[in-house]
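Minutes, structural biology subgroup

Action item carried over from last meeting: produce the structure token record for Thioredoxin-related transmembrane protein 1 (Monoraphidium neglectum). EB confirmed the sequence was re-checked against the source entry. Recorded below for completeness.
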Amino acid sequence: MSGELTAEAGKVVELRDDNFDSLTRSGAWFVDIYAPWCSHCQRLEPTWRQLADELKPLGVSVAKVDGTKNKVLLMRFGVEAYPSIYLLREGKSWQYDGARSFQSLKEFALTGFKSAQPMPFHKSPVSAFGRVMGALHSFPALAKRAYTHLREDKGFSDMTIISGLLLVPLALGGLGICILDVMYTRQPHLAHQHYE
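Output recorded by EB:
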């Protein structure tokens, strides 16, 4: 499945750890973080689909995140309960804590957020800081995918993969030493010149 989905009218976009940053970089997003087993989440689902129909033509994409499968996003948002609802707009985030009625949710997504306090910069998942933290939290999954690709698709042994990983810092260290050697030890030493 491609990470580059579009938010079509009437369609709730499924955001995941691997497509969140690319999709939410622009525009306004109303996001429900849910768990499939949560009865409150299940009751919210028809309202959420109705919001997708109503809000997309008004410039707000409606999305959901399965919190049981997307642990990086769960950490980035700081989710403590299901469902958790957020509005993402212009690099800022607002957590919605109001009534779960269609009208209340719609009003918050369009104008109500203006009177609410946005999340602090360091806690917003769409701030520059939040995106950097997301990349750091995603590194283990990326490393695992790279290992799986090298092991299963390319047929490399564990020993070959580990040796290759150890050679990278060794090569970089050697290159750094050579650069420092050229910069500092190959220049003529002015202190040893004699003046007559």
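Discussion: The two ends are 79 Å apart (CA to CA).
Next step: EB to file the record with the rest of the batch.
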